[in-house]
Amino acid sequence: MPVAAQVMRHAAAHPDRIAVSGPGGDLGYAELAARAGRAARRLADEGIGPGALVAAGQADPVALLVAVLAADLAGATPLLCDHAWSEERRAQVMAAVPVAARFDAPLPEADGPPVRHRPGPDDLTWACFSSGSTGRPRAVVRDRASWTASFAHLDALTGIGPDDVVLIPGPLVSSLYGFAAVHTLAAGATAVVPGRWSPGGLADQLRRATVVHVVPHRLPAVLDALEKTGGPLRTAVVGGAALDAATRTRAAAAGVRVVSYYGATELSFVAVDADGAGLRPFPGVEIDVRVPSGQALGEVWVRSPWLCEGYLAGATGPLRRDDGGWMTVGDLAEPHRPGEVLRLRGRGDGAIQTGGATVVPEDVEEVLRKVPGVDDVVVVGTPHPYLGAVVTAVVEGTGASRAALEATARAELDPAQRPRRWYAAGSLPRTPTGKPARGLVAARLAAGDDPGLRRLG
């Protein structure tokens, strides 16, 4: 990953086949390859080549894919950035990572001899930000093999092939949707990339889509649209939070097979449920749930070829590794033995799984503490029927209004990080060391009868 070499092969064999369908229309494989080649030539002319980190923040998803492929041809590493960031936010993130160049508009193109970097499995070919880059910019970087070598397994599980039209209805800066797009191009299929979730556009998109990649809480809307318009949709690939059995049953009644999986930006695929019988290790993955003595749950540790290289620029985050090649991001599960179903039970570090995103509470708290009138704040996840959980903030102090808090959240946090529920407390419960007791706050919210908490209107 990325997949410039595969795109070039498809362009030679099937030049007129539609590669991508974006907001501006369709682009065939030959033209996609030509645009990527000319952009790679421009990068090379500017001295950007192997080992360079190129920040790509194009709003147009097709232009973003061209930039990713051009960087791959030049041997550089694309770093996908959110085009919706404010300039202040963008500057903060860029200051934290060693980028050689930044492009927010479509990459300039140049004529000249083709640029060809000989791709290797250990090339660093993809970097993107995990959910929550404010205050702690945290970019995950991957080598080529950590994703491309998994493509054949996903093909076998989903049946995706060159005749498919794959709908990818979300921002490609998300690793889930970015992976879906490049996997589709590697397969020689057609990637439909609107760039964002658009319920109003689903009807047209589903008239030709045979496969959709989506997060769990979006699947019901896809099925609603399918019931109204019909279409050839046969498979839904669902990643992120747990998928409820009722939605899977409904999909089956509509003739749509669901392949759901659990993973993380850092870990890629961990476990997959291809038949509704429960999550089992994805091919090539070893799972070790490490349960401390006397505890009911343990951390999920993973060893596989699909793991990331780590965070750029020495950033810290939930990813940990041991000397045996195992990694964890702190997810919790019931005790697990080989051959058994993996039963996940949330995050042990307080991270919030909301829809398809993972939100680190400390990142949100760091921003909200800057709001005048906030003495302290605790962020937790509270249950939601479709998203799994929503970000919920409990503010200590009496001087901050909800309007001021929401204005700061809109200005400095990604959409997934912004609290949906707000509470105020005269004083937060604290641990013996003086830190806010996050677990106790979550328990009081769950109980719903704590007079010390009031909803902010």
Automatic annotation (TrEMBL):
<dbReference type="InterPro" id="IPR045851">
    <property type="entry name" value="AMP-bd_C_sf"/>
</dbReference>
<dbReference type="InterPro" id="IPR000873">
    <property type="entry name" value="AMP-dep_synth/lig_dom"/>
</dbReference>
<protein>
    <recommendedName>
        <fullName>Long-chain acyl-CoA synthetase</fullName>
    </recommendedName>
</protein>
<keyword id="KW-0436">Ligase</keyword>
<comment type="similarity">
    <text>Belongs to the ATP-dependent AMP-binding enzyme family.</text>
</comment>
<feature type="domain" description="AMP-dependent synthetase/ligase">
    <location>
        <begin position="9"/>
        <end position="101"/>
    </location>
</feature>
<dbReference type="InterPro" id="IPR042099">
    <property type="entry name" value="ANL_N_sf"/>
</dbReference>
<feature type="domain" description="AMP-binding enzyme C-terminal">
    <location>
        <begin position="364"/>
        <end position="435"/>
    </location>
</feature>
<dbReference type="Pfam" id="PF00501">
    <property type="entry name" value="AMP-binding"/>
</dbReference>
<dbReference type="InterPro" id="IPR025110">
    <property type="entry name" value="AMP-bd_C"/>
</dbReference>
<feature type="domain" description="AMP-dependent synthetase/ligase">
    <location>
        <begin position="113"/>
        <end position="312"/>
    </location>
</feature>
<dbReference type="Pfam" id="PF13193">
    <property type="entry name" value="AMP-binding_C"/>
</dbReference>
